[in-house]
Amino acid sequence: MDTRSAREEILGKVRDALHRTAGASVPPVPVTARVPPRPGGPLEAEITQLLAEIEKLTGHTRRLASRAVLASALAELVKTEGVTKATLWTTPDLIAWDVAGTLRALGVTLVSPQADKQLVAGCELGVTGADAALPETGTLLLRAAPERPRVVSLLPRVHLAIFTPAVVRPDLHQAFAENKDAGYSVLVTGPSRTADIELTLTLGVHGPKTLYAWVMDTP
Amino acid sequence: MNPAPAAIDFRANSQQVPPSMPGAVQKATAKFLGNRAALVDLLGNDLWQQLRQAGHEARLHAITHLDAYLIQAEQAVAKAGGHVHWARDAAEAQRIILDLARRHHVKLAVKSKSMATEEIGLNHALEAAGIRVLETDLGEYIVQLKGVGPAHIVVPAFHLSKEEIAALFREKLGVEAPAEAQALTQIARQKLREEFLAAELGISGGNFLVAETGTIVTVTNEGNGRMCTTVPPVHVAVVGIDKVVPDWESLTVLLKLLARSATGQKLSCYTQFISGPPRSEGETGPREMHLILLDNGRSRILQTPECRETLLCIRCGACLNICPVYNSVGGYTYGYPISGPTGAIFAAQILGTQAAGSLPFASTLCGACNDICPVKIPLTDILLHLRQRVVEGDTLERAVAPAVLRAGARAGALALRTPWLYRLGGRVLAWLQIPFQRDGWLPRLPPPLNRWTLARPFPAFQPGFRTWWRSRVRAGSRPQ
What's the predicted TM-score (pTM) here? Predict the structure, then answer.
């Protein structure tokens, strides 16, 4: 048995195999290992494509022209999905749009995301923003932070993301460049799904069964 | 050291394939291949080939400078507040996880699908220590209830019908289960929800490890990967040292290739990026995060330049889906959690050619796997190289074939360049085969020739070629 630590032994074997010495320099990643990002289009076209892709993944999308429209859309969602308890991010946008107040006025009980996980899991609805949105794939990027807990988009049965057109990015490249410093982030592409039983597409395995993506056109 | 694994006998296993298997396999693989082809068309073949080349180069660059990127990743994970462990082999990785589980008084661990933990036999080790461990990917959950391993790396339970799964749920979970996919999925969701919330330890693999920021990337569809890494208080990720990628720009290429090749999705439903545990008190998520960097023979694979590209694999499963052998026998025949061409080259090197020497021969060498591989692994070249190693007793320095093969080849060469010996041989063989012949076939031959007839009959030797040829030439006929 080698008396060196596992780390030293593994690194030693790797270096021997590659004929490298400790501390040997690494050339830059070859340019042939890169592909250019997808060129973006006009913002309107990008939003249309984004929402179309999310719809293809069985997500529900809407464009909201004002806070009044947001309030009526929330009322509709609460009714359709039978929401009694909800949990949400406390980001500046969601606060400015008074999502919490609107839900409370609709008779929904708000649960803190920091509450016991059993309570958070008991919520029917989790409301988040989005930090990037990718039209080609219908993908939303969500960063985690204290005011944006990751359980909100995970434990409730319904996930609602409300964001402005400003978060649209052409491709993963830009979204990653802006968010790679996050301690945690997740790309959400449609609601939770599986085809594990006889290849039948089934929604809502462990994550949310239903995804709503709403674009707020006037901040 | 691990105990020497029992030898995998692909040929014997292939005799055990249930008749329903090939049909189920082909239904799944045809669907994935169809979805994939549609997305490749949408991108355009030029862009797809450019992506494949870039994916190949990014992975190759990472593994040929692996030591440096591992150190960079290690330092970045530590800086982000994660704990990094190094494991030389399966036993060491198991020990690290068991210690961790004991320290945290873990009674229940939840796992998201991970080929690395299958490779190290983690479930058995945890169960032997009295810790319950639950697979949470729906397909893995089903095969775990059934007490078997995954039949495909992406859809582990595709070979079971909904009726079989419903019966399994009724028997093992004691619930009323209709044979309907949506209802069965909801039963699993409810059962597993309770377990996620109760578990003290979450175990995941990692599709990639980004050296630049020490980020563990997991790609899942169901959300169980997010549950395992978010809900329990401790998260441990078991990641092979080959999973390192240099930076996020490389990741863009590989993510575009992975889901398209695997299930024919543009991106999988959830792609997570985990850089250490949550950074502040108020944030939800595990309090502790551990990363186990697993060697278990990967550094040995690097030693042989001909085989090095085995480690480029991103485990999409496309080479399984296209492989005519896999499509005929399914995953279990390979006797290893990773099956198909990529499983054959990986297992033969990780387990050694003594134990898995039959796997490199489980291929027609048609090359469809080379053409579909999103990171352009030269699978058939590696299969051929490994066949050579199996035949030569795995000694690379001296090309020595077994004595019987060498003697046979020499006798054949002599007979072919000595016409009278060739003619005599033809007569003698025709005479010698009489006692073995049945209806124009030789069902059984004496050793060492029985290596052939154990699997299939040998056509009886036809000695009349020269006579036939002379009569044809006389009649002036042309070959047809």
Answer: 0.87
